[in-house]
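Subject: complex prediction, re-run

Hi both,

The earlier run crashed halfway through, so I resubmitted it with identical inputs.
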Amino acid sequence: EPEVTQTPSHQVTQMGQEVILRCVPISNHLYFYWYRQILGQKVEFLVSFYNNEISEKSEIFDDQFSVERPDGSNFTLKIRSTKLEDSAMYFCASIRDTEAFFGQGTRLTVV
Amino acid sequence: RKEVEQDPGPFNVPEGATVAFNCTYSNSASQSFFWYRQDCRKEPKLLMSVYSSGNEDGRFTAQLNRASQYISLLIRDSKLSDSATYLCVVNVMNYGGSQGNLIFGKGTKLSVKP
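This time it finished cleanly. Structure:
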């Protein structure tokens, strides 16, 4: 069964450093998303991506965040200068019809 | 007002019990509705979509009341393996009707005990 894959599974970074989280969505899906979940809190929408551009973003997705689909398969989320409060689980999802398939997530720890 | 609200629980029930979860949503433009299940430190996984006519999948029954903006999930004959957090999710379409984004409730934690 096709699945969304994310790498790395866990990343520890120092405050102020840049991180890139990677996702390989399901190949025939057209809509891609990034969500985050701070420990013990709800899953929060960050950004949606369609046709090689951002279609919607939340207020969380400020200038420190960016997304790319550099090679037609990978879908990346970059955080330019990480803050302690960026520590969370980051989930990539791709959507077919209205069903979202989530990757297993990247646990980002900013120290 | 929060967009999707759920009773956070936890619900602690014995095996075999019937348990019901409720959810309300604030955006009347919401188009699609779902229950997702999330195990501890894992990704959310679709449990079932929720249709206006109500739908059933084995021990699970979902109901939607658009007038009241209310969604429910009923689990019958609960199993130990049902222990998880149940997330109420709505899809709010973008202007123009293109694929919107999924808005999650905070989830209701269920613990099924032997």
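Residues 87 and 109 of chain A are 5 Å apart (CA to CA).

- K.
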